[in-house]
């Protein structure tokens, strides 16, 4: 059984897409490691990259070429200063050279050496082949970005079952029924069962450190999005809305950083309409940062990065003014586990399953996590996740212009609102009377993904992507 850590589901990276940006970036890093291990790195004369399928069809809008160049340059998506990205790319283009892994200067023309093939490889919709020329011989290595920043090489005949994450959790979980069985056997909430698994691979102090790092990134992302004006890059001229929405919502309480900001929000008006606006504002803020190549947390993907932080922020500033780090920890542990159940049983890749695999999964993750914090039993937590996904089934991925902007940004706000509603519905539900268990909706999501026409799976060949005239945007 595959063991997926919470920190595999919640990764820190650069936007706008986990499968199209973070995945190719990590693939470039892995390729460099392969070349080093084979002791061919120093002898390389030339490098080139071929992109296939969804990576080639929407790669330009998702900055796939940028991500690959940054990965080949030796930059780390978790730490690279985002302000340096444009400068690095501009230098590569202007000089037609790349400092390979920040060690070896090679001739490199992005227009020639990154090829956007409009064909699909048979194994997965997001394929890429790296080629190195050594002593006039070509050495190829093919990777697949399968969603959420996960990268694999072809080894099995089923992409969703091919993982390279190996561990030995004391409580291995593949389905919701198994998770509930452990909760009942141990008499523990879901967050504690997940914590015990995490403690088998790292110390609790390290877990706390990573949880804090993830939350700090989410919080800073919301803060930055709420305080940044202007339009998003990419050519659609989409105006940022989080800034104006935030200006109309915030009170007069002064603040100077993201932590003080939380306390300031707690003192604002909290009528129902304002609550809806605040949650939407948080979600929009994150995905506007994501769309502008900012640093976000895949949750479980970049395209759905706004749902979980928006719902967690809702809990901290609306539901529980005494919420603390332990609440944040429990929330993210539950969310990560629910996401892993969907990854194992279905997919979190929009190229494989449409937007139900991104916004649908993120909404299910947030709904379950919120339900536990609001006092829900483990059974009700899974009911909340099931409700959230049930009302995202069949959601297509049809980004206009191949950009993670329309309708992607608004969908995060909708997914966050649905998650809160699903948690509340679950709290008033008797699990014994539930007709559709979580495992059934996971399976249904996967079957729906397989039935969905390929043009509705992150190709920009269907739906809004072809139904809207770009000149009108």
Number of strands: 9
| Secondary structural class | alpha+beta
Return residue spans where pLDDT drops below 50 for at least 5 consecutive residues. 156-165
| Mean residue pLDDT | 93
- Taken from the alpha-carbon principal axes, the silhouette is globular
Major beta sheet, specifics?
5 strands, mixed
Number of helices: 20
In percent, how helical is the residue content?
40-55%
What is the CA-CA span between the terminal residues?
A: 47 Å
Order of strands in the sheet with most strands: 5-2-6-7-8
Describe, in plain words, how this protein is organized in 3D:
The chain is globular and about 65 Å long. Strand 7 and strand 8 (151-152) form a beta hairpin. With 473 residues, the chain is of the alpha+beta class. The chain has helices at 6-9, 18-37, 54-57, 64-72, 85-95, 110-113, 176-186, 190-199, 204-226, 242-249, 258-266, 272-291, 307-319, 325-345, 350-353, 359-373, 378-390, 408-427, 438-451, 464-467, and strands at 11-14, 44-53, 97-100, 104-107, 114-116, 126-134, 137-145, 151-152, 295-298. Strands 5-2-6-7-8 form a 5-stranded mixed β-sheet. The model is unreliable at 156-165 (pLDDT under 50). The chain is built from 20 helices and 9 strands. Helix 17 (378-390) packs parallel to helix 19 (438-451). The protein is 50% helix and 10% strand.
């Amino acid at each position: 059984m595959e063991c997926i850590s919470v920190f595999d589901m919640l990764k820190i990276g650069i936007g706008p897409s986990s499968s199209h940006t973070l995945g190719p970036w990590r693939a470039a890093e892995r390729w460099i490691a392969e070349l080093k291990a084979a002791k061919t790195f120093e002898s390389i004369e030339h490098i080139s990259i071929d992109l296939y399928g969804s990576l080639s069809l929407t790669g330009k809008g998702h900055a796939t070429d940028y991500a690959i160049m940054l990965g080949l340059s030796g930059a780390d998506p978790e730490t690279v200063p985002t302000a340096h990205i444009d400068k690095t790319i501009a230098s590569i283009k202007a000089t037609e050279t790349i400092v390979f892994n920040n060690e070896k200067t090679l001739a490199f023309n992005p227009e020639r050496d990154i090829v956007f093939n409009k064909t699909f490889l048979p194994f997965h919709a997001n394929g890429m082949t790296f080629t190195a020329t050594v002593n006039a011989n070509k050495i190829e290595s093919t990777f697949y970005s399968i969603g959420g920043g996960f990268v694999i090489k072809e080894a099995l005949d089923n992409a969703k079952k091919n993982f390279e994450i190996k561990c030995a959790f004391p409580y291995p979980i593949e389905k919701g029924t198994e998770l509930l069985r452990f909760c009942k056997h141990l008499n523990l909430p879901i967050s504690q069962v997940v914590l015990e698994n995490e403690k088998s691979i790292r110390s609790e102090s390290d877990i706390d450190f990573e949880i804090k790092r993830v939350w700090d990134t989410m919080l800073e992302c919301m803060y930055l999005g709420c305080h940044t004006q202007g339009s998003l890059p990419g050519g659609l001229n989409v105006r940022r809305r989080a800034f104006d929405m935030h200006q109309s919502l915030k009170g007069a309480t002064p603040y100077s950083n993201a932590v003080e900001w939380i306390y300031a929000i707690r003192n604002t008006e909290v009528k129902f309409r304002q609550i809806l606006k605040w949650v939407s504002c948080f979600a929009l803020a994150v995905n506007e940062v994501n769309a502008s190549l900012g640093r976000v947390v895949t949750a479980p993907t970049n395209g759905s990065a706004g749902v979980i932080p928006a719902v967690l922020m809702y809990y901290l500033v609306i539901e529980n003014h005494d919420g603390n780090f332990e609440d944040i920890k429990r929330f993210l542990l539950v969310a990560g586990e629910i996401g892993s159940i969907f990854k194992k049983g279905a997919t979190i890749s929009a190229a494989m399953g449409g937007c139900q695999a991104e916004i649908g999964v993120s909404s299910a993750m947030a709904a379950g996590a919120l339900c536990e914090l609001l006092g829900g039993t483990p059974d009700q937590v899974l009911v909340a996740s099931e409700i959230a996904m049930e009302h995202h089934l069949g959601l297509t991925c049809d980004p206009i212009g191949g950009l993670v902007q329309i309708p992607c940004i608004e969908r995060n706000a909708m997914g966050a609102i649905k998650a809160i509603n699903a948690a509340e519905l679950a709290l008033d539900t008797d699990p014994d009377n539930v007709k559709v268990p979580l495992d059934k909706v996971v399976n249904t999501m996967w079957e729906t993904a397989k039935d969905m026409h390929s043009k509705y799976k992150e190709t920009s060949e269907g739906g809004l992507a072809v139904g809207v005239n770009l000149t009108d945007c």
